[in-house]
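Materials and Methods. Structural model of S-adenosyl-L-methionine-dependent methyltransferase. The 372-residue sequence of S-adenosyl-L-methionine-dependent methyltransferase from Coccomyxa subellipsoidea was retrieved and submitted for structure prediction as follows.
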Amino acid sequence: MQDTIIPPPLRIADLAFTSFTTSHVLLTLCQLSIPDFLATGPQTALALSQKLGTDPDRLFRLLRFAGVHGLLTMRSAGGKKGSWTPEGTLFKNNALSSMLCDDHPQSQRHMVLCLLGKDRLAAAWDELEWAVRTEGGDAMKRAYGRGVWEHLEKSDGLEDLFSRAMADLDHSCATTVLKDYDWRRFDRYIDIGGAYGSFLASLLGRHPAAKGVLFDQLQVVERAEGDWLRHPERKLLADRTAFTSGDFFKPETLPRAEGPGDVYVLRQVCHDWSDDDTLAILRSVRSAMGSHQCTLALVEAVIKPTQQATADPYNRARAASDLHMMLMFGSRERDAEQWRSLLAAAGFSLGRIVPTRSMFSIVEATPVPVTV
Ligand SMILES: C[S@@+](CC[C@H](N)C(=O)[O-])C[C@H]1O[C@@H](n2cnc3c(N)ncnc32)[C@H](O)[C@@H]1O
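The predicted structure was written out as tokens:
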């Protein structure tokens, strides 16, 4: 609608100016924890500035921007009609700003901070032109002199923030990914590159008889296990979960399959890697399956054919994620044919691609038996 009623010059100005200014405002709302402060009820900018130690007028202007853009609700505090002043306007959380509260069950706060905050991943976007001119280059290395994983490891607190951002992604779409695919027919979920295990926990929570295996790098798994044991609900799930660490490029470190009821889940993992690396990861998983006819379930943003692209409301997010992967890792989002050929080269047969009511689909494959 917006695309059709706003004249093209204004729409371009709007895209160029409003989108980046909105990102900055989103970030600042998180950095100042404003939605958390507003969680107790509506407040004026003046009252809030006293709690936050900010300049009242500047804070008011920040909140007014957020209000105008629908990120907060604002109304007159009942004083002089129409006076937009730090003391005359009440700001209140709405459905969007509530998502920036630290403890909201669908919080997106860590995602915003990780992408846009200190040591921000979005810095790689400054290298977009360079990346498009370059074949196979790594914009992250150009921005920071190091790749994403090293950057996460070496930036204070960023690795933790990233794993929490991954959990935020869960809040935004896990429910549909859980509901729109029949996960309950499996006995054991083996989550490869499962980060802090938020998706695994959701799977186990919905299927009380199933077991789980969380596999990731040592430092991530150690933190995940500690987190699970501290969290009362997850502690119960931990009894059904094996926490194992290793390197998915080393097949011998992966958890071995035990039967046909096992499903190896790789959610948002392969899109971080080039075709060669993805092939190596898939081959490791194939090797870990041995002779068991278990299932591989990749949760990925499968790119739709061009003619369907504009009709699909999630395709904007998929296209953005594709560029983000190019900049972060020199990798990509893939379409059905690209998945089919990668899976075949790794010893799998692509079964179905199950769409969900989110940007993600489940790419389901089974191992091709090895003939001797
Ligand atoms: C994009 S995150 C996806 C996390 C999780 N699957 C999710 O959807 O929330 C990729 C994960 O792969 C893990 N990873 C990266 N390199 C790895 C390696 N060589 N072996 C095992 N895990 C690795 C990272 O630690 C990270 O948790």
